[in-house]
Amino acid sequence: MRLYKTRSLAADACKSGRVQMNGVQLKPSRTFKVGDVFTVRRGPITYTYKVLRLSENRLGAKLVPDYMQDITAPDQLELLELARLAGHQGRDRGTGRPTKKDRRDIETFFSDDYNPDFDDFDDEE
């Protein structure tokens, strides 16, 4: 149900114990019934989903809410928000690699046709 991009990634998650139902690790071949509740651990967050309906084939992303309900606990979503805010500190301007604008300014400065107007800096005699 589009929790993982490919079936092999989903199978690897099952084999590594990141997909569970009632505290029991699920195998990739496990079939679900309507009403089953399972958890998927991704990083520090444990998502919880409930199966509403079953489908025989792959669904479009817009149809997933009709088949599966996200019932993740609010404290887990809060962990996700805190992790997002902690990782979004950014960098101070001028540190690290130059931005694309910085690179253009540097190239303009070192180009042969760069000719600043030095008349503004006349010596006072």
Please tell me about this protein's structure.
By secondary structure, the protein is an alpha+beta fold. The chain has a domain of 81 residues: RNA-binding S4 domain (Structural Genomics Hypothetical 15.5 Kd Protein In mrcA-pckA Intergenic Region, Chain A, Roll). Helix content is 30%, strand content 17%. The chain has a five-stranded antiparallel sheet with strand order 2-1-3-4-5. β3 and β4 form a beta hairpin. The N and C termini lie far apart (79 Å). The model has no long low-confidence stretch (mean pLDDT 83).
Defining key terms:
30% helix, Structural Genomics Hypothetical 15.5 Kd Protein In mrcA-pckA Intergenic Region, Chain A, 5 strands, 4 helices, alpha+beta, 125 residues, 17% strand, five-stranded antiparallel β-sheet
Give the neighbour order of strands across the main sheet.
2-1-3-4-5
CATH class designation of the domain at 7-87: Alpha Beta
CATH topology of the domain at 7-87: Structural Genomics Hypothetical 15.5 Kd Protein In mrcA-pckA Intergenic Region, Chain A
Q: State the shape.
A: elongated
Helix coverage percent: 25-40%
Number of helices: 4
Mean of the pLDDT scores? 83
Find the count of extended strands (DSSP E, 2+ residues): 5
The CATH level-2 architecture of the domain at 7-87 is identified as Roll
Question: CATH-wise, what's the superfamily of the domain at 7-87?
Answer: RNA-binding S4 domain
